[in-house]
Amino acid sequence: MTPPAPPNAPPETSLLAPSELPVILLGRLRLLIALPLILFAIGLAKITLGAPRYRADSRVRASSSDGGAGRLANIAAQFGFALPTGGGGDPVKLYVEMLGSQQILRQALTSPYAVPRVVGSADSVRGTLLDILDITGADSVERLKEGVQRLRNLMEITTNEAAAVIRLRVTTEWPLLSEAVNRRILEVVNEAMSNVRRMQAGGERQFVEGRMVSAQNELLEAEAVVQRFRERNRQYANSPELTTELERLQRRVLLRQQVFSALAQAYEQARIDEVRNTPVLVILDPPEMTATKVGRKRDAIMWFIVGAVLAVFIAVGQEALHRQRLRNPQWWSTLAASLRAGIRSLAFRRQAPS
Q1: Dist CA 288 CA 56 (whole Å)
Q2: I want to staple 303 with a disulfide (CB 3.0 to 4.6 A). Which of 3, 43, 86, 176 is the partner?
């Protein structure tokens, strides 16, 4: 018969039941309060002592008036992503993708900037954004790749789908640089969209121009057929068969005229689009004079939350180790002896002459 366990005997298992968690946390209340506050103070000190940051804000409106679904999908394909062509396309998604695309950001990174550090200051920030942000890499490709990722972290893009409005925010250490980078990104998107639109319009113009020649020849041929019919059948009015034949030939001429007129209109529109230089993005609020100093209070709060979570894990881990020590003192003694031996070995290696 097994003797009963003494009243103060340790539990048979070191596993912690969920119902015991409040008691464990209350027993280590100092840790739960001190660690989050310490990390919060560290985060707050980093924010206070770190360089100030300024955010420039712009709002633009996405429009698909010059393309439609097919043209939007073609433009999207130029930048490596796909848009569904059903349902009229999605210009908001197109512009959002373009604002964050590598092709656009690379041009913004390699563009030269020269802006005062503060308004009215003679000291200025000069160079490409790669140089200003001190972006390094093993080679130019890696440097650009790192720069794209850094610039994406400095950007914030939000949308209002109902109004087709996109808001772009850029944050840097200098107010006028934030405004300049914001403006440059919008300019690069406009330039890219305009170039793609002109290239497509040029291709459409060439295609329609060739098709117009064929349509004109078909129209002239159909009119010649009608003329020959009337020359051969001057008294066709009294013949139902000849009247029907003439009506059929006239319908063919009318159809050829409609095709030629439609192609002529498409040709003129393509010529207009090919030379059009109007901006594609409608800028509702420009980024100039919008730079404002932004705090990083959210970062400090995140430090506090991380400290709280870490404190809970430490408290639970301490309790689990304590129970394991009570449950198996021999294991704990062996572990402590191994740790002491390891520390002595490291200390001896450091003190030993090389």
Answers
A1: 8
A2: 43
Tens digit of pLDDT for each residue in 277-315? 556 678 899 999 999 887 666 667 887 888 888 888 888
Q: What is the pLDDT of residue 352?
A: 58
252's enclosing H/E stretch is: helix 240-275
Distances (CA, A) of 241 to 42, 238, 253, 348: 99, 9, 19, 118
- Give every CB contact of residue 71 below 8 A, 6+ residues apart in sequence: 64, 197, 200
Query: In this model, does residue 81 exceed pLDDT 50?
Result: no
Question: Distance between CA 92 and CA 166 in Å, rounded?
Answer: 7
In the chain, domain spans: 18-47+298-340, 51-200+278-295, 210-275
Residue 248 is encoded by which pair of tokens? 């059929």
- Coil, helix or strand for 50? coil
- Each residue's pLDDT tens digit, 148-176: 999 999 999 999 888 889 999 999 989 99
3-state helix, strand, coil in the chain (%, to 5): 65, 10, 25
Residue 331: partners with Cβ closer than 8 Å, 6 or more residues away:
324
What are the phi and psi torsion angles at 115 (to 5°)?
-135, 150
pLDDT band per the 50, 70, 90 thresholds, residue 142: very high
- Does CATH number 3.30.1890.10 belong to domain 51-200+278-295? yes
- One-letter amino acid of 184: R
Q: Is 60 exposed, middle or buried (0-12, 13-18, 19+ CB in 10 A)?
A: buried
Calculate the average pLDDT of the chain: 79
